[in-house]
Specification:
The protein is built from two helices and five strands. It is α+β, with helices and mostly antiparallel strands. The longest helix has 24 residues. It is elongated, with a radius of gyration of 20 Å.
Amino acid sequence: MLQPLAIHEAASDLLACVCATLDEMATQVEDYPGCPTCRRCLVPGLPAWDDCENPCTGEAGGQLTVNLSRMYGSTNFPAEDQTPQNVRGCTPPLSTAVELVVTVLRCAPGPTEEGCPPSCEELDAAARITHIDAVGVFNAITCCLAATKRPGRRRGRPYILGRQQTLGPQGGCVGVEQRVTIALPGCKCPEEVPSCEC
């Protein structure tokens, strides 16, 4: 049986990894805003694009979210298990795979009050931040997520890095979306076996 907070803990670890990595990149790259300070959260379902501008005076604007896309049983991670389950009793698969989605949204340059398109300089600046966000999310997963551990597990989280794509510009927002599939343990370890790996 899965532990009740297995998905939420994996998503929380992913959010923390991405935010820490974006903040670290802000110390390396001039004029990069880092992790959004007002809107960084786990969301139930698809994230609403409602805070890509800078809602906090003097703080890093944008929105960072992590949401669950899908969950499935996997005998040979990350392949989806197509084997019929035993109709009696509780027979969980060897592992459970969850696909999580990281979304980083920032304010996109728009037309002027006179209807003129944004300048190439404005577009370049927005593209620069989007490109750094893309690298930051990628680095967070490959360099941080795998090292996150849960009690009772000796190794980090097994994962498969999925597709990353650019979002927008739409509704004044532009950003990146990264998918990652994480293997969750297929059972709850007994308390008397603290080092077991399910």
